[in-house]
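Email to the structure team, subject: Carbohydrate kinase PfkB domain-containing protein model.

Hi all, the expression group asked for a predicted structure before they design truncation constructs. Nothing fancy, just the tokens so they can compare against earlier work. One-line instruction: predict Carbohydrate kinase PfkB domain-containing protein, return tokens.
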Amino acid sequence: MKSRLGFCTFGMFIIDEIDYGDGKVESTIIGGGGLYAALGARLASGEANARAVSCIVDKGSDFPQEFQALIETWGTSCIFRTDLGRLTTRAWNGYGPIQHRAFKYVTLKRRLEVESLTDEQALAATFHMVCSPSRCMSLVNGLWERRKALHASEPRPIIIWEPIPDLCTPAEVDNLREAAKFVNVISPNGGELADFFASGLQELSRRDMVASLLKKCGDNAKQVVVVREGAEGSRLYTQGKVLHLRAYHLDPSRVLDPTGGGNTFLGGLAMGLSGMVNPDFKDMSTGLGLVAETCPSQTTSMLTAVVHATVAASYAIEQVGVPRLDPSDRESWNGQSYIERFHAYLGRERPHIVDQLD
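Reply from the structure team: attached below.
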């Protein structure tokens, strides 16, 4: 029997134009939340599990063929669909002071629906989506029905949900709480989390914001929130604990372009939760010296996933576009082994992480 896919995304492929706000503009850059999420999953998977990573790339009449050739070097189960009657989805990304980012589509977008997936994709172990609360609930319900139709006893997949920035507003808090019941991990960035409380509750701590966000989440007691904080790393809220993980790059000069970093982070996180990663859960436990009595398996599993997310994201932001896979060493990207970078991060951050588990 063919192995189950570890990861699939409802995110799109997009050709980006990036305006840095200082007169510098980069055009026709490979991108999109779906592609970067797949990149993160592929970085974390290692070559042995590369085929367990899947996404859909919709190609229009203007699609650069070198982009397909580049993606195919990753060795994933990415599906390419061609429609010469339309343009490839394109978007403009604008950056400004204090990590400000603006985004708009410049051609018609083609969203992915549950019906867009092949049967193999629909049965993946984990899914990534970036969308509104209502679309999140619709996708999860549709996915669940599709999976049950394929196999009556099919388990629920792990869902990683990235709320769409435009709808991170006080008016959407109740909708977000409702959608939270449908997913395993919610991951806004720090600014988006604060935007939910822009009507006067900014004085709340991050922890209180998360608690308020998850209020009335019903029976989803194992709900996890991962807040992405850019150069400050990320914070994992799980089972009453708050764990801070620093970013891989502490030297800002190593960060050339943040575009896609958050999506790559979440793809790595999703693949980490699938278990189809290298290094794996056991390597993580050994590296941190964890034992079950002091760190429950769910916490260790989430930590493994977030470390993979952190390391994967570090590659995405070192250049404009995506990192380059070494053709002679398919575990190395941008000239450094992913496994070596993972262990280097773990070695550097072990005291900081372990101290928080006491």
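The longest helix spans residues 297-316. The longest strand covers residues 25-31. Ping us if the truncation boundaries need rechecking.
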